[in-house]
Amino acid sequence: MLRLVDSSSAHSRREFLQIGTAGIGGLTLANLLRSCAEAGDRATHLRDRSVVLLNLQGGPTQYETFDPKMTAPREIRSITGEIQTALPGVTFGGTLPRLAAMADRMAVVRSYRHGISSHGPAAKHVMAGGNPTGAMMGALYSRVAGLTNRQTGMPQNALITARAFGDEYKHLYESIDRVSENGTLPRAYRPFNPNAGGDIIDNMRLNVADGRLQDRRGLLTSLDQLRREADSSGLLESADRFQQQAFDVLTRGVADAFDLSKEDAALLGRYDTGAMEPTAAVKGRNSYATQFSPIALGRQMVLARRLVEAGCGFVTVTQGGWDMHGGGKEFTMKDGLDSLLPAVDKAVSAFVEDLEQRGLSERVLLVITGEFGRTPRINKNGGRDHWGNLCTLAFVGGGLKMGRVIGRSDRIGGEPASTPISSSNVLATVMHSLFNIGELRLQTGVAKDVERIITAGEPIRELI
Questions:
Q1: How many CB atoms lie within 10 A of CB 279?
Q2: Which of 167, 370, 459, 461 ranks highest by number of CB atoms within 10 Å?
Q3: Exposure string for 334-348, b = 16+ CB within 10 A, e = fewer
Q4: How far apart (Å, rounded) are the C-alpha atoms in residues 248 and 410?
Q5: At residue 147, does pLDDT exceed 90?
Q6: In this model, does residue 34 exceed pLDDT 70?
Q7: Is 279 part of a structural domain of the chain?
Q8: Alpha carbon of 441 to those of 36, 329, 451: distances in Å?
Q9: Residue 160 domain flag
Q10: End-to-end CA distance of the chain, in Å?
């Protein structure tokens, strides 16, 4: 195992160095780096791509996001109106002006349907792309690509919830099990969750006191101190360059990716959603308003970009609050949309622009979705109920064809009016972005059931 321990642990500093070069799957990290270099590290089936999946937990409304249906009756059409996008004749919900302006860099699907209208089953189905193992797409990816990036040591499958940023955000909603299923794959393929831990930490444990991402005395300070002590002790002097590289992976490269203080303040401001929480009046009458605040979403998207830059292949970002039935103590649709949609508009548009400025647009695929859509008719409580017959879905980048709307919904936005896009189509599209499918079929040592799932699906043809 690879394990980083704090000084309060029973392990000594020397034990840290011994454990830190222990095996991953029977091969030490140093040896793994050496063998990669000697072989030229030619994983030809892996494209130089990553996926960030923004999961809007609770079920985002298709009307107020990407399919307003303003020609439908009042009780059906978007309550936020519509706004013209950069694509002629295409409109988005009225509170997404930034995303509307970059619609020519997006691909919106208006005919995605899976037919499941229960939270848990639908959420797991979407994250798995409906594959028979039940494993989330990130788990399938890491099953082929490996648990960690061979060059950087970064986990290949990660989950970023709002609570990852410390006690300030501990009141915010999260539902981890619905978005982290390993299905029939080993539990080691569940995503790395820097807040709550996970089985991958058995292979690379960041076990430091108060090790939340914002606690400089925890994760970052402890890792920096470990490196300084190792340097001063001379323990690294006799290590070859691969051992040195392995130590750097553990004590510098991985830690740096989680350190938002390294970001430019102006850039963080472009992402910042900290002021977008529900108003005091909404909180006063709505018991759910506080936990569904999107104040951390900007930080989550910045961290997602940092992780993919550091070699993570699949990052899931979750944002709760989209289950808007209305009435009583429920989060009414207007309450939710007034804060959630502006936060998504700001954080996602900043993410897309940030990738473009860094030359990463073709290398990172952003997927925006949730477990299902919402009912066509607004209910008596001013909300929309669960609806698996038409779901929100959009893509940005990743080497796919952008600037288009795929499929169409019926006149009331409740069913596909063109050939439905299925979850298996979504899975195949994501995997075609991540893998060279022809090369993957020729690989040996890849589990055949996983290989068949990844290579057999039909991607959304308009995107490939």
A1: 11
A2: 370
A3: ebbbbbbbbbbbbbb
A4: 55
A5: no
A6: no
A7: yes
A8: 21, 52, 7
A9: yes
A10: 40
CA distances in angstroms from 421 to 41, 386, 413, 437, listed in the order given: 36, 19, 15, 21
What are the start-end ranges of the H helices in 176-257? 219-233, 241-248, 254-257
Using the 3D structure, point to which of 242, 257, 272 is the last residue of a domain: 257
Contact 93, 394 (CB under 8 A): no
CATH of the domain at 446: 3.40.720
Give the start-end residues of each E strand in 13-105: 23-24, 27-28, 50-56, 82-84, 91-93
As given in the structure block, the two tokens for residue 162 are 């709002």
166 and 240 inside one domain: no
Distances (CA, A) of 266 to 187, 272, 295: 40, 10, 17
Nearest-angstrom CA–CA distance, 83 and 72: 16
Q: Quick one: pLDDT at residue 32? A: 52
Structure tokens at 258: 């989680």
* Mean pLDDT (whole number) for 414-432: 98
The boundaries of the domain holding residue 248 are 1-42+214-257
Give the pLDDT of residue 40: 44
pLDDT digits (tens, 9 = 90+) for 187-207: 889 998 887 543 333 333 444
- pLDDT given for residue 166 in this prediction: 84
- pTM, whole model, 2 decimals? 0.84
Q: What is the pLDDT of residue 355?
A: 98
DSSP structural state of residue 155 = B
CA distance 369 to 395: 9
Residues 38 and 102 in one domain: no
Same domain (yes/no): 348, 252: no
240 and 268 assigned to the same domain: no
**Is residue 374 located within the same domain as residue 234?**
no
Q: Are both 236 and 282 inside the same structural domain?
A: no
Number of domains in the chain: 2
Beta strands (DSSP E) in 271-375 are 314-319, 364-369, 373-374
Which pLDDT band holds residue 110 (cuts at 50, 70, 90)? very high
Q: Residue written as tokens 């006191």?
A: 209
Give the mean pLDDT of 236-250.
50
Task: Classify burial at 25, counting beta carbons within 10 Å of its beta carbon; exposed 0-12, middle 13-18, buried 19 or more.
Answer: exposed
61, 64, 68, 72 alpha-carbon torsion, rounded to 10°: 70
The candidate with the shortest Cα–Cα distance to 394, out of 373, 371, 368, 428, is 368
- Residues 235 and 116 placed together within one structural domain of the fold: no
In a domain, 462, yes or no: no
Rounded Cα distance between 200 and 204, Å, is 7
Question: What confidence category does residue 216 fall into, taking pLDDT thresholds of 50, 70 and 90?
Answer: very low
